[in-house]
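This is your field. Have a critical look at the following sequence-structure pair:

***
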Amino acid sequence: MKSFLLMLTTSLLVITSAAKEPPPIRRLDGTTITTTEAESYARKTLEDAHVTGAQIVILNKGRIIWSSAFGNRRLDPKLPMDRETTTWAASITKSVFSTYVMLLVERGEFDLDVPVVKQLAQPLNAYEVYRETASEIINDPSWSSVTPRMLLAHASGLANFSWLESDKKMRLHFKPGTQFRYSGEGINLVQFIIEQQKHQLLDQLMQDALFTPLKMTRTGIIYRQKFADNVADRYDLNEKFRSQTKRFPARAAGSMTTSAEDLGRFVSALFAGKIIKPGTQKAMLTPFINLRMLHQFPSQAAEPEGQEGPSVGLAYGVGWGLLTKTKFGPAFFKEGHGDGAQNYMICFPRSQTCMIILSNSDNAELAFRPLLEKILGNTVTPWEWEGYTPEYIQRSRQTQ
């Protein structure tokens, strides 16, 4: 009898332990890794790269299967990063904003293919915010052909920002729609058009359309006081303090603060058709321009073409980078580069699998490739084009 009771107790303990064990993460190739293994590997990888703090989320079949936080959100005093910590999304803002734009398109409230000049009541330089920077571009004959779709696909010809130009003025560097050149200026211009048409600021527009309905409580296009109890400071290569994360005003190109879990909720809702319809999502993720360049941000004016892009069908759609022909099916992705905030997210619609990495550290890019390959089994991201190779990162640091 005692032996039977002992066996019964042992069995119950095993069953209880198994019930508490979270399901494993399914990699893109169908193999699995336990969350315990993923946690251990991520912790060591981030520590070895001297990443101050980070959040990682994995989605399988469109649902968050694993979420964890590492390191610290603040070093003085030392406070841990946790899953609810608000961090700076940087340029991931562009893709979330573009999804909001597609919602307007679906509702018939915005047109991607009507030129900018026809969507504004006045010439661009008649508006105070563009009075100086747009004084030259309005005289360029090609300006009349620039559309919001080109701006969101980084194919308008604009530089990243006008303040990077020698005279601080907007100009077109090629025939609109024919080449890729990353442009935050273009994304902010789409924001300006929408705000003019809606007579409302982007902060409230996106709060009402996305963040509140999706219960993204740690997300805002601008910093909110309610984030103050759990927000990440940002740190440089030597883990020295850079800045607090308080972004003002609203900028579609990169002002959003969020958490990895909130972004997980966002893409989960996107997969479920709760943000835009499947047809609208397909249009958003349809290539507008194919990319053959060696680097996303060329270090020189004339760079040779790369092999990575064509091998995976690298392209850009409406606000999202695309991989159109990988062994795991198509993918959409976005990076976030900012001072003390390096981020990356990628999703594979066929399996509805995603990995999201947010950090408050300039060192995080060193950890992206090993984390994505080990935990997600992602061997298709064009690492050189992204600038995530040690050699490219080292060259970039030398120019900083």
